[in-house]
Please model this.
Amino acid sequence: MKRKLLGELLLERGIIREEDLEEALRFQKETGGLLGEILVLRGLVHPMELYEVLAEQGNLLYAGRDLEELLQSIDRTLLERFDPQDLLRFAFFPRRLNQGALEILTPFPENPHRDRWLEENFPKTAIHMALITPYELDWLLHFFFKERFLKEATAGLFFRAPEESAARVLVPWQWGVLSGILFALLFGVFLAPQTTLKVLFALVNLAFFAQVLFKLLVGLAGSSRESLAISKEELESLDPRKLPVYTVLLPLHREPPEVIEQLTSAIRALDYPQEKLDILFLIEEDDPETLRACKAAHPPYNVRFILIPRGFPKTKPRACNFGLAFARGEYLTIYDAEDIPEKDQLKKAVLAFRKLPKEYVCLQAALNFYNATQNLLTRLFTLEYSFWFDYLLPGLSRLRLPIPLGGTSNHFRVEALRKLGGWDPFNVTEDADLGMRAHYRGYRVGILPSTTFEEATSHLKNWIRQRSRWLKGYLQTFLVHNRRPLHVLKTSGFRGWLTLQLFIGGTPLGYAASVVLWGVFFAWLFSRGKLLEPYFSGPILCIGAMNLFVGNFLGVYFSMFAVFRRNLDHLLPFALLNPLYWALAGIAAWKGIGQLLSRPFFWEKTVHGMFRRKGP
Amino acid sequence: MRRPWAGFIALSGTTTAILLALQRFAQDTFALQNSPELRFFSLRIPTLLALPDPARGIITTTPCLTTLFAFLFRDFFPVVAGGLTVSGGLCALRGRKFIASVLLFFSLPFLALVLSSPAFTMGALFLAFGFSGLQRAEDDHTARFLGNLALGLSALCHPVGFWLLPIFALCTVLSVEASWLRRGTHVILALSPFLLFGGMSLFFGWVYGGYPLLPFLDPALSLGAFLALEKPSFALQPSEVLLAAPFLGALLSGGLSQAVFALGMLGVAFLRPYLFPPSGVPVLFGLALLLSKKDRPGEWLVFLAFFLLGLGLFLARFPSG
Model:
């Protein structure tokens, strides 16, 4: 007997209208998606109704009607024979062994890869199938395996490569060196204060000078034209049927409803076939408000809610690692709740990955702000971000140096990300750490010519919180990768090692030192050079003058150029206020250093949604 | 070139050796002992050495970078400055009419200019790179950035560029086809390095001496002030005409733009004793305009007006006889 088509069955049952079916079929022809998925994503069919009909069509049983009964029917001892990653990869769940036959639950009855895998692992075993929706599959996996996922998300990296984990702030020899330096300084100050201070000033000034030179070279390299250009024609010529599944991780924590609404709109606006988008809202179990807001926003059906179990450390990377276990895409990206990526960003990423060699495992898109002109702080933040993402990171990429990834909009090849071990949950700038780790393991990070717009923190307290976390994370990354300096030298050469010292370590330490140096500068200025005369003379005076004028100027000037390039000319005069902004960063750096010693894994949450809340 | 640094070092070495030989054996031919610029530095160095902290003297002198060079290298300052300038220039021009550039940079007038006016040569070359970078800057941010920085660095090398400031600002405003906001941005970006670097010795002059303009008024502290007191002579040496021969090579092999550049440098070389106020510098600016792909009548008008003004000021300050 000829099997009835899905559309016919849905029409017969009165679940959809004929015109809806026609439109869905037309869309299916264009994108090559599954009809059921298209109908669900368009909100025309409820997933449970669809699977009821699919079960009828395939002469199968739909097992998701009564979840209580379904849970009780699962043979827990059987589960021990399976790796949850395999279950996710092949999209099925083992139910029980019944008279020598293995009963499985799956949303996709026709899956040759799964069938082959089962044949290899359960030879000569009959397989019986029942249907469940993809949401029920996630739910089952979460229910039965969440402890394993959590363990992997939290301690996976630490157990596999403890030397790459920030779970320990300092290893014993680092404690030794640090203590040695501190003792030497104390002795020096006690025995020969003037010489010690002179040497200290000289070293700090030389380090600053080296950092200025480094940033100049990197900035110059980044100012040249984009090496990875993606044309409009290339984007238009992409065949939607051949686009891969793309996972989007959205770690959400204490997000206001308006931010969730904005996020939902941004997801719907993405120019990527919706049935090929695998969107995961990662919500902490102890955050029911966000869960409620997410449900209230009625996101599309390609959004899955993944509840992150309670645990320590409560950080974004832990949530992302947990989410990574559920990712179905070939590629993956992370956005923050308030992000608005350019609509074609995912397509651009797919094209870029296709163009680039396999060693490129990650692409970083530029970040910028939609509330640049909200107040002085957001203006200065925009100046900084424009320089960072439009000059420094492209420069690092062009010079083949390690790139500390930015907080969001990093696009990965999922396979490589899993090989890398995901993010370090103990590092509060897990993204920067991951970029460095990838480089030191022989991979490369590229720059994607696309921008994601975020909300710039507009409140000073909030900004200090965010910045102190970033700078603390940079210090964590600096300390972690400096545990094996020879390994870093061997894998990425002197330039890679220098990047770690000057860029990763130099950023927080430079900010921290700059507060002190500005104080010294003003003391020198108001005493007309007399107060610190013994310390600032000869070559140190020349280098100090160079740092003061050229170093600070280059910082200001690069940010002027960066906003000029983005046609944000009205922000140009504010670049002159950058030294004030750096002083704030210096305060944040000291806070970060303090926290590194007292609460190294504490995640200072940045409050989002301030801009929208204040807006009309 | 796969190893640009190696090329740069080799080139610097060769140039330095040639300059050293010329300095030793052709002092009289180039009349180096009459060079006002060399005299300025030779007078300034003992003053600096007599200070309790020479570094303080260096940073309050205009221009401070070339003063630092002169302080560090003393008699060899022209050789080192020339070596760096020539090799830097050749590296910057690599791949673009390289043979012509070599002919130009290694020509005797140019080397004579380097040996007799090292600070001016460095400043003028930075200015030339600045203009050239800005001409290519329309869609090339690196060229714009480097061009503007080069203009700024020229302020650390020789006061010659201060004269050029208003010309440049006005030309920039007139040449950009954009809103006034955008034009203003261009001007700010172009002038910021120059103003800041130029203001360095003013700032330190104010901190240490209590009066920011002191370096510009005291001939002992400012090359510009010193040169302004120099008595000029327009007499052209026959040997200088003969020295122009190598430029013909550059002219023949390098095409129009190279030829114009070569002739400009020749003009600069001939004017070398009288380069402040800088009659020669607007020539460089004019060259950059000539090399520009676009027809820019506005820029030309402003350029000509300032050129005439400069020449007028120059002649008024130094009446013939």
About this structure: The longest strand of chain A covers residues 444-454. The first helix of chain A runs from residue 6 to 12.
